[in-house]
Amino acid sequence: MSQNFRLEKEGLINRSKKISFKFNGKSFFGYEGDTLASALIANGVHLVGRSFKYHRPRGFFGAGVDDPYALVQLIRNNESIPNVKATEQELFEGLEAKSVNCWPNVNFDIGGINNFLRIFLPAGFYYKTFMWPKSFWYKIYEPFIRKAAGFGVVSHEPDKERYEHKYEYCDLLITGSGPSGIASAYSAAKNGAKVILAEDKPRFGGSLLTSDVNIGNESGKEWADKIITELKSMPNVVVKNRAQVFGYYDHNMLVMSERLTEHLPKSDKFTPKQKLWYIRAKEVVISSGSIERPLVFGNNDTPGVLLSSAAKEYMKVYGVLVGKKPIIFTNNDSAYETAIEFKKNGIDPVVLDSRKELSSDLINEAKNLNIKIKFEHVVVNANGYRKVKSADIAKISDDKTAIGKVEKIECDCICVSGFWTPTIHLASQSGGKTKFSKEIDAFLPDKSKQNETTVGSANGIFNLQDTLNNSFEVGYNLSNKITKKENKQSTPTVVEKKSSKHDKFWCVPLPEGKKYKRFLDFQNDVSVSDIEIALKEGYRSIEHVKRYTTLGMATDQGKTSNLNGLQLVSNIENKVVPEVGHTTFRPPYTPVSIGAIVGREIGKHSKPLRKSPMHSWHENNNAVFVDAGLWLRPRYYKRGNENLFDASKREAMNVRKNVGVCDVTTLGKIDVKGPDAAEFLNRVYTNAWLKLPVGKARYGVMLREDGIVMDDGTTTRVSENHYHMTTTTAQAANVLSHLEYYLQIVWPELNVNVVSTTEQWAGAAIAGPKSRDLLQKLFPDLDCSNEGLPFMGFVETKLFGVYARIFRISFSGELAYEVNVESNNGNFMWEKIIEIGEEYKIQPYGTEALSTLRIEMGHVAGSELDGRTTPYDNSLEGLLSKKKDFIGKRSLQKEAFIASKREKIVGVVPLDKKTSIPEGSYIVRDANSKLPIPKLGHVSASCWSVEYDNPFSLAIIKDGKNMIGQKLFALSPLKNKSIPVEIVSSHYVDPKGERVRS
Amino acid sequence: MLYIKCPYCGIRAQTEFAYGGDATVKRPELNKEITDKEWDEFVYLRKSLRGKHLEFWHHISGCRQWFKVQRDTTTHEIFKTLKPHEEL
Q1: B52 CA to chain A: closest CA distance, Å?
Q2: Residue of chain A whose Cα is closest to the Cα of B59
């Protein structure tokens, strides 16, 4: 297809490089430097999609981030990307895009029927309609709404692209490279400040790219190019294009997303698609510019109605005509620049100006060019469905409430200009106040909360000379505060045309008897009548009106609709705009890819990975791993065709029969040192610690202040003032913080230090009846007898010349020892144990067998100490000292904690001795009683008892002690199981604990 | 993301710290007879202040010291940071 709307010369595109692309399956071409939008317009395509609610045809309304319409589904490098703005997407060879929110296609869209049903779809339609009957929600309403809602389609494939994060610090962050941004960046950079200048578009210069001005003796664009080139060469300056600063957060931290490869057919291997910059700036200069305000009239959303500034940008930057028979409808001077640009390119526009005839530099120039101007005239309605065909125009009365005789004139586009809205999103996000300026009828930044300064048109300064004067000064002053240098640049002189005052007029009244839809929010299909309904129904707060009507929501965030909505509310309510206020500006200003937010923290990189020093041995011996907090632990060691059940049973059985070895490096270890260490432990643990002799370990339980069990473990007195504490793997970090809190804040008088030594030691638990024989072989010089190394004993010794610690402690309930060596010797220790253990039939065992062994012994662990249970619940009352105070003791007097029928830990065995009880099952008295069945408690842990060869579980149930011997039910609604069970003691194996002491 | 001045290390990003609760609450002395009400107030009751709040933070990925921060709960402005036993 030929580019009928492409100009011959004008624009910044590269006409020597053709780029072919596809839109809705049809092939087109554009040029290097085009956006998808400009290339489509060049080819005469104005219909890009359908609107959200009424499925009305949608074209282009802006030329960049301000466009609320032109969302497409993009296919790039075999990935399908939803909600891409055609006005921002740069053209690349082979680009493919599709319209969204339409079926079967954009020209004929079934959903368009909503447009004719629109009297039934007023504001709050969803809130009013889908309330009843309640049962309809899941089956009828929700699926329907889900199907109808939304724009693009999210890919179900994993995102193959790479995203990165970067942290950066600077003196000045400048958001936007229009004249004010360039000037303040230059002035600050020349004064020695570290500057980041961010521009969201591919090209630098902002309004200088399209305005007809001179700075010094160059054109605005030449000046911008020159300064940007110099800034790029300075070592203290970072200049970024395609980089949107979208959020202003606390303490001067801003976040910027940089698009690195989206303008290319695909990313190369070493370049991420996007980079998210977290920038901590000492000072922020907000030079985000302003967006043109639309004018509101009948069917003003018809494709072909667009902002006059966008029409100018399409001509000046892309060399594209948005139409050949343009109407320009304005309430101010700036649209005359667009009219003049049309005329210069051989097109005759008609200007409709709502103001009384007046003169200014621009108006006079337009008159001299013989441009047809109709003052006191407005567009009443745009005719045409898929594209504007003509406009109904009329004269408007002085008070702007009445229109004269309607006349129809032919046109193919209507360029509207309702003056300018400063982009104050960032300034407002920073927590700064805003104020309403009657001068420009818009909100401006007021008192700053953080270190930010708004310059240029974002601060309501629309005159270039004033903008440059102010921005040069701001750049100098802010940099001077930081660098203390005094290199001041002189501001260049500007040649520009003076403008006259804009008209306070935005909404064209309806002609007698007509009910045209007049749209305020083009993305969400919010019209004047919707706002009127909301106000009639009693919504007053602008925040409520927004949510009820969806004005200013979604990806657009009210960029073009906000002020017209407020103006309308204030007119109806007879309030001034500042009384109505505005809705909160929240980040992000533009949509951000979820991939960019996540960055590289995906898959295995989502959290740190901790491995024990013996990890590679486990890998080489068929270990199947499981995540335990951040650690990877062997769950079981697979032999042949074994599954988890077979392997863990074999491993546990071998511990009960022979000897097993388990990697227990992951246990938390904390060194507690100092003259008051014993006293400290005595306060932290529930049991007594003052008399523990050197060379002995003790089991301890610690509580939170609310009396709930926090953690358990053994602590060993290594020497007079030195204790080695162990914690559970999961609670290690919390316990350390807890100890530090009490030492630093509550009892600073105690002379004790704590430090984590988890990573310093590698640990191996050797458990089973043959463990003593094995230990003796490992440590031939040591007296390993029951007298020489008794239960809970501790020795320091050497393992074939390597320093080692032996603790006679047991989690499995068997005779057991734990050997610790320094981490770098971990593998040596492990291999020695395996090698020498061979004659005792040693087998390594994983966490699954470890669990089995502890469950059938009735030892509590994380699933019982779940942050909800007291020491009584876990049958740990024997460890509660009556003589001394400890953390959480006072809470144990609580009535609920000592109530007679309180939960208690018990054992559970299925009556058939075959059916395993799912963890989390409820224990109930009668499985067939009326719902809801009263719950006695829950199953906390389940295993296959290797001692008795039947399933066994632990449960915490009401009045557990008196339930022993009773026949109840274990119910698992999730697994749809109801299992008759008997309650037994939680100490299922060796209840007297003789094995550990043997 | 807040910027917090650890009294021992200087200004660091919030990600290095963990929040540690109301710093005006004092734990009752050990072995002291107190009423249920006093104990419950210590364990459970906290004011949800709007405005200036004195709170503990823990430099968990740094020097591992606990310290006090005076922060505005609505604006996140940090007025002062103190060592645990310094008073405002």
Answers
A1: 16
A2: A737
